[in-house]
């Protein structure tokens, strides 16, 4: 995969926020006793994508983050981000 210059240019504060967001998603998944495979299937993405989401990868689209939040029952919290 080609590296994006925009990812490297992200401010450190944004990188930290994305990592925290991904970590929170991971915690929410585990609290619900859902495997990565289950979330991936329900969000119509691959397991690697869920792993990337849980690591706060800025290359994952906002739509995928939204789908994962929906699967976890947290889609209404997406409004709070704006």
List keywords for this structure.
82 residues; mainly alpha; 0% strand
Kindly report how far apart the N and C termini lie: 30 Å
Taken in chain order, the helices and strands follow as HHHHH
Shape: globular
Number of strands: 0
Tell me the Rg in angstroms.
13 Å
Helix residue percentage: 55-70%
Structural class: mainly alpha
Structure description:
The model has no long low-confidence stretch (mean pLDDT 92). It contains 5 helices and no strands. It has helices at residues 5-8, 12-31, 36-43, 47-54, 62-71. It is mostly helical and 82 residues long. The relative contact order is 0.16. Helix 3 crosses helix 4 (47-54) and helix 3 (36-43) packs across helix 5.
What topology does this entry show?
Layout: H1 5-8, H2 12-31, H3 36-43, H4 47-54, H5 62-71
Helix pairs in contact: 3-4, 3-5
Give a concise summary.
The mean pLDDT is 92. α3 packs across α4 (47-54) and α3 crosses α5.
């Amino acid at each position: 995969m080609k590296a994006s210059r925009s990812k490297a240019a992200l401010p450190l504060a944004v990188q930290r926020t994305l990592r925290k967001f991904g970590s929170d998603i991971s915690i929410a998944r585990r609290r619900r006793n859902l495997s990565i495979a289950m979330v991936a299937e329900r969000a119509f993405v691959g397991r690697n994508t869920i792993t990337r989401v849980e690591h706060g990868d800025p290359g994952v689209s906002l739509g995928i983050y939204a789908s994962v939040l929906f699967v976890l029952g947290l889609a209404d919290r997406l409004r709070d981000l704006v």
